[in-house]
Design brief:
Blueprint (H helix, E strand, L loop, with lengths): L2 H8 L36 E3 L1 H5 L2 H18 L1 E5 L5 H17 L2 H4 L5 E3 L2 E6 L13 E6 L22 H12 L3 H11 L16 E8 L13 E4 L5 E5 L6 E4 L5 E3 L7 E5 L1 H6 L9 E3 L5 H4 L3 E3 L2 E3 L6 E2 L13 E2 H13 L12
Helix pairs in contact: 3-7, 4-6
């Protein structure tokens, strides 16, 4: 393990605070020995019925906005039911992720190594290479909007971004099913914050997105237990939609500094706030630390685990400004590409950051 990764295993998040563009809590990046970490086994993440916003009247939409906003303000996470996506699609997608990773040889995966495209790093991340400070036990692959034939553009060639192009239409089905949720979710959050619910509608017409396919191989003896499966981190986006995983492991850090195990029913979607939205909301909505830990059941640890979160981004040349009407702005306006790459330079190296003036 190189020196930076070795240090990350023993470090506090605040040792990397110079990269953060919003206020974040202090925590140990790596998992501690049993008994050294505090868990809140009684904390319950709120479940919200998105169907009220999708199919209800004005009163239903207002009620959903209040419930969702309260959940996100409390802990930055909510569980969505009533979203209208066929649960079988999530079952199928889990199978596709497993097939995708196990059927593509490593040498073919490495031809698609992740690199920055705009503000987001897209492509393949080998196991233990999610970042320069995370020796995580996961393979990852980020597909941006350009990886999907969503807009019917002439000359689209899936083979440029997919080692097996036949997977593009499969995962496009997943993206097309979840994309319509972006606008009502953001409109509900803006309503809760007292803003025009349509303030960001134009940014979501051809929404900038990232579908991340995660494959956690079965855990074996000798794997570095300090790495966990995915170390503590926050998402850098507006919000993330995560169809409920079937294997235990997702944990979040609540405002009391205790870890909470996420129990989301099959077919639901776990929603969490990202750094963009924490900044826009002037810290009202926290971008909550989360991680993927080893399952407590040894039998589950010997199984592979998959997840396929979908991130909602803003265009890289947009400007992040504290939302109008929120008193006492704590942050100056900043270009999305500057905000995003300054933050993720923590994971990819200082030369990853791109500085673009707000008025350019």
């Amino acid at each position: 393990m190189d020196d930076r990764k070795q240090h990350g295993v023993v470090a506090s998040s605040h040792e990397y605070a110079r990269y953060d563009q919003v206020d974040k809590p202090a925590y140990r990046l790596a998992e501690q020995d049993a008994g050294e970490e505090a868990f809140d086994e009684d904390f319950v993440i709120r479940t919200c019925d998105l169907g009220r916003a999708l199919h209800g009247d004005e009163r239903d939409r207002r009620r959903f906005a209040d419930e969702l906003g309260a959940a996100m303000q409390e802990v930055g996470f909510a569980i969505l039911e009533g979203h209208g996506v066929d649960p079988q699609l999530f079952v199928d997608a889990a199978r596709w992720v497993e097939d995708f990773y196990t059927s593509v040889p490593l040498e073919d995966k490495l031809r698609y190594r992740a690199a920055r495209h705009g503000s987001v790093s897209e492509g393949y991340f080998p196991i233990q290479e999610t970042s320069a400070i995370h020796p995580d036990l996961v393979e990852g692959w980020v597909f941006g909007r350009r990886a999907f034939d969503l807009d019917g553009e002439p000359g689209f060639d899936a083979a440029k971004l997919w080692p097996r192009p036949e997977f593009e239409p499969r995962f496009r089905r997943l993206v097309e099913a979840e994309l319509p949720l972006f606008r009502p979710i953001l409109a509900s959050i803006l309503t809760y914050l007292g803003c025009d619910p349509h303030l960001y509608d134009d940014r979501l017409v051809r929404a900038k997105l990232g579908l991340r396919l995660n494959y956690y191989p079965p855990l074996r003896d000798g794997m570095d237990a300090r790495a966990g499966r995915l170390l503590g981190h926050e998402d850098i986006d507006l919000f993330t939609l995560l169809p409920a995983p079937t294997v235990e492991g997702l944990q979040i850090l609540n405002r009391a500094g205790k870890w909470v195990r996420v129990h989301a029913p099959p077919g639901t979607i776990v929603l969490n706030t990202g750094d963009y939205l924490q900044r826009l909301s002037n810290d009202i909505l926290p971008s909550t630390t989360h991680r993927v830990s080893r399952p407590r059941d040894p039998a589950l640890a010997r199984r592979s685990r998959v997840s396929f979160p979908l991130a909602a981004y803003l265009p890289e040349h947009d400007v992040l400004r504290v939302l109008p009407g929120l008193a006492g702005p704590r942050y100056e306006p900043i270009k999305v590409i500057t905000f995003h790459t300054r933050t993720t330079a923590k994971f990819y190296g200082d030369d990853y950051a791109v500085e673009v003036p707000v008025d350019s």
